């Protein structure tokens, strides 16, 4: 049986180029798939939307994994808004997924996602593996869920749900489900439910984790777009356009053949990074915790 590890921080090859991953990285367990016979539908799932649209006149600012770091997200959006080239033209701010888990304010991040932007700006988010796990948890909540130990506890705490206290009081599953029903706004559930898994423009594919090499976007499955790592990172993507992604953390943005990775460990005291894709070029913007600390 293969199980995909939810926390890559202990084995990520720190700062090395994508094509020089250590052997230990490649031997890490994977998420359950068709190889163990337990979830044959997982490899076939294409339940989330894949969007296609022209690139806005002012380009796209793609933001890496937020993981509940609301303060950094707000500061980065302020920087993006100030950076806009032409106030008369449209600009898209695109989150690459993993809005939730591990950080201090996942609830605040989703509230922020649902808030308005200044005129001329549009905000969109893709679904990351942690967002998908949170959504699946809400469909079938349980105190025994593995997700709680992989960042979910911090997410639930941001909604006022103290898992440790519930466990110590032996409140039981029914009490837990009732508390969740009161704590999680329906608007947040719908938001998670409706997240697309990819955006394609004339210049790039935007996804959370990456793409299976040699497979067209039309034939990619949700699980790969949200979870893939080593198969994508060690191979030449052979994609028809640039792939912009998060998911695999590094201290700085990572450039590989036809891809840009921008998960820069915001939840691990690193910066939160955006890449501006504009007329075939790219440049980075970021904010660090030390810039806005006490």
Automatic annotation (TrEMBL):
<dbReference type="InterPro" id="IPR050126">
    <property type="entry name" value="Ap4A_hydrolase"/>
</dbReference>
<dbReference type="Pfam" id="PF00149">
    <property type="entry name" value="Metallophos"/>
</dbReference>
<feature type="domain" description="Calcineurin-like phosphoesterase">
    <location>
        <begin position="60"/>
        <end position="251"/>
    </location>
</feature>
<dbReference type="GO" id="GO:0008803">
    <property type="term" value="F:bis(5'-nucleosyl)-tetraphosphatase (symmetrical) activity"/>
</dbReference>
<dbReference type="InterPro" id="IPR029052">
    <property type="entry name" value="Metallo-depent_PP-like"/>
</dbReference>
<dbReference type="InterPro" id="IPR004843">
    <property type="entry name" value="Calcineurin-like_PHP"/>
</dbReference>
<dbReference type="GO" id="GO:0110154">
    <property type="term" value="P:RNA decapping"/>
</dbReference>
<dbReference type="GO" id="GO:0016791">
    <property type="term" value="F:phosphatase activity"/>
</dbReference>
<protein>
    <submittedName>
        <fullName>Serine/threonine protein phosphatase</fullName>
    </submittedName>
</protein>
<feature type="region of interest" description="Disordered">
    <location>
        <begin position="29"/>
        <end position="49"/>
    </location>
</feature>
<dbReference type="GO" id="GO:0005737">
    <property type="term" value="C:cytoplasm"/>
</dbReference>
């Amino acid at each position: 049986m293969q199980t995909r590890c939810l926390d890559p921080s202990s084995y990520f090859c720190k700062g090395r180029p994508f094509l020089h991953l250590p052997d230990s990285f490649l031997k890490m367990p994977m998420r359950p798939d068709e190889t163990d016979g337990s979830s044959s539908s997982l490899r076939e799932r294409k339940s989330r939307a894949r969007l296609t649209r022209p690139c806005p006149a002012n380009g796209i600012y793609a933001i890496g994994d937020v993981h509940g770091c609301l303060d950094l997200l707000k500061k980065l959006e302020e920087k993006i808004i100030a950076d806009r080239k032409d106030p008369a033209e449209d600009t898209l701010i695109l989150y690459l997924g993993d809005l939730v888990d591990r950080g201090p304010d996942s609830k605040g991040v989703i509230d922020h996602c649902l808030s308005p932007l200044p005129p001329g700006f549009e905000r969109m988010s893709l679904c990351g593996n942690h967002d998908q796990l949170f959504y699946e948890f809400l469909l079938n909540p349980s105190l025994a869920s593995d997700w709680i130990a992989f960042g979910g506890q911090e997410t639930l705490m941001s909604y006022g749900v103290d898992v440790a206290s519930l466990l110590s009081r032996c409140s039981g599953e029914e009490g837990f489900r009732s508390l969740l029903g009161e704590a999680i706004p329906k608007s947040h559930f719908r938001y998670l439910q409706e997240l697309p898994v990819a955006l394609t423009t004339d210049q790039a594919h935007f996804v959370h984790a990456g793409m299976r090499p040699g497979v067209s976007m039309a034939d990619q499955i949700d699980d790969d777009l949200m979870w893939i790592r080593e198969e994508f990172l060690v191979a030449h993507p052979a994609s028809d356009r640039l792939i912009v992604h998060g998911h695999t953390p590094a201290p700085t943005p990572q450039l590989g053949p036809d891809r840009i990775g921008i998960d820069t460990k915001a939840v691990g005291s690193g910066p939160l990074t955006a890449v501006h894709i504009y007329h075939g070029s790219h440049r980075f913007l970021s904010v660090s915790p030390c810039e806005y600390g006490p």
